[in-house]
Each structure stands twice: as C-alpha cells, then as structure tokens.
C-alpha cells in the first residue's frame, strides 16, 4: 500500500541518515513525559485494559518482554511489568541508552507515578507491589539498530510506541520496522503499538528528525499479516493545543496479539 502525503517536497531521509546519537534525551523527556498528558492517559488506560484482559483469558507470568525504541518513555514498560521476568528496552540512540541506564539504576522518577496510577484501575496492576523496584530489577537496556535485528525473538509480550513512523521519511522503512517488531513476538503474544498520525517530522533540541506520514489504514496493512483476528486500531483525537509535531493530527493505537502462524 503506497503512502500518500502532501509533504512530497520534504527531502527523503532514511533512518541511517538521521543524527540519532545527537538526540537530546533530556529535552525530549521534558517536552513529552515530565507530566502526564491527556493523550498518553487515554493510550495508557487502553493498553492496560488490553493486557489485563488478555492475561485474564490466557494466564501467564515470568515472560520476556520487549519495548522497541524505548527512548525516554517508560510507560510501555510499566504496562508490561506485572507479567515480565525481563523487559528488553531496545534503543539506538546513545543518549537514550544512557538515560535508560540511569532510570534502571536509580528507579523511575516520581513523575512516572501518575502514569502507573492510570494502570491500577485494572488487575493485577492494582495489587502489584513496588513497581519502582520491579522496574529496576527487570529492565534490560540494549543498544542496537532495529534494521540490524532485534536482540532475540519469541518475546511473550511487546510494545513499540511512536517509533516505526518516526525514524525515516520512507514508507518502506516504516513497514520494515513494524515487521521487525511483530516478527520478534511469540505466537499468541499480546502487543500494543502506537503511532503519530500524519507526522511530518519533529524537532528535538536544535535538531530535526524524520517521520513518515501514515494513517490508520497503513498501520492495519502493516500489522495484519502478523496479527490474530480481532486486532483493533484506534484513533486518539487530540485538541490542537496539545499537538506535538508538524502535520500531526492525532495518535493511532494498535492492540492485538501475535497470530499462531509464522506471518
């Protein structure tokens, strides 16, 4: 499925061309995750309900989870925490890897408590003891390039938030990133993946990073070969004053589980 865009005048930029090791981790964290935004609240509530419902039907614990392109966003890992023995936080940027290492060593900061509180309306988050200590125990920070291969496969649960569409202007690389994520999951593994709708790129500090403009049908088309029946792609409509990126019109959230086939 070709991606249509009104931004054809934007220079094509492949993932390998972007200055990832100059990514300003602190600036990105302060802009996006210092406080809990209403859009992230909506997404986190839906992800928590999805994982809680899945494991009520298919009980499991001590899984190996993965968050692809973790960056400075810890809430996908928090959403997987009750079921995981390890959570691989996979990240390319050296600055983000360092930031994640500090979060693991020191325990997540107080700003993440409101994010966790959103999850506690569901079981077993509501009775989960000491998520801060648990995060430090299970987090496994790994640096690597998504296109060079993820560190392992057969993960029992997985997340990928604002990554596949935010690493290149090329639709083919968006598809490849989604395929790499979905292909790393074990049959039946629940997943949550979030995307910026119609993003034309974004600034972090003094640098600009590429994005591929996508809509819900592109997410569905890319994930369907890997997903079991019942996958949902939901749109989060955001007031204009909360928009984070040029051309960005909302967020897209895919919730499902890996099919039992090979994809």
Automatic annotation (TrEMBL):
Pfam families found in the cross-reference section: NNMT_PNMT_TEMT
InterPro entries: NNMT_TEMT_trans (IPR000940), SAM-dependent_MTases_sf (IPR029063)
Keywords, in A-Z order: Methyltransferase, S-adenosyl-L-methionine, Transferase
GO annotation terms (biological process): methylation
Molecular-function annotations in GO: methyltransferase activity
Superkingdom to which the source organism belongs: Bacteria
PANTHER family to which the protein is assigned, alphabetical: NICOTINAMIDE N-METHYLTRANSFERASE (PTHR10867:SF17), NNMT/PNMT/TEMT FAMILY MEMBER (PTHR10867)
Name of this protein: SCO2525 family SAM-dependent methyltransferase
Lineage: Bacteria, Bacillati, Actinomycetota, Actinomycetes, Kitasatosporales
């Amino acid at each position: 499925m070709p991606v249509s865009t009104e931004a054809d005048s934007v220079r094509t930029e492949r993932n390998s061309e972007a200055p990832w090791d100059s990514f300003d981790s602190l600036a990105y964290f302060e802009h996006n995750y210092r406080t809990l935004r209403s859009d992230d609240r909506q997404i986190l509530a839906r992800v928590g309900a999805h994982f809680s419902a899945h494991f009520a039907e298919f009980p499991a614990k001590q899984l190996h989870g993965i968050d692809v392109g973790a960056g400075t966003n810890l809430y996908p890992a928090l959403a997987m925490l009750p079921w995981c023995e390890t959570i691989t936080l996979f990240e390319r940027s050296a600055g983000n890897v360092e930031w994640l290492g500090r979060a693991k060593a020191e325990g997540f900061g107080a700003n993440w408590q409101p994010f966790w509180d959103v999850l506690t309306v569901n079981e077993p988050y509501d009775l989960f003891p000491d998520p801060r200590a648990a995060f430090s125990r299970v987090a496994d920070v790994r640096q690597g390039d998504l296109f060079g291969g993820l560190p392992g496969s057969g993960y029992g649960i997985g997340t990928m938030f604002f990554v596949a569409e935010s690493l290149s202007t090329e639709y083919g690389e968006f598809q490849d990133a989604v395929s790499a994520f979905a292909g790393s999951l074990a049959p039946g593994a629940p997943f949550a993946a979030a995307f910026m709708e119609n993003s034309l790129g974004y600034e972090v500090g003094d640098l600009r990073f590429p994005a591929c403009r996508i809509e819900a049908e592109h997410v569905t088309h890319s994930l369907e070969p890997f997903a079991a029946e019942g996958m949902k792609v939901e749109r989060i409509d955001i007031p204009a004053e909360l928009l984070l990126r040029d051309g960005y019109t909302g967020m897209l959230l895919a919730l499902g589980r890996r099919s039992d086939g090979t994809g």
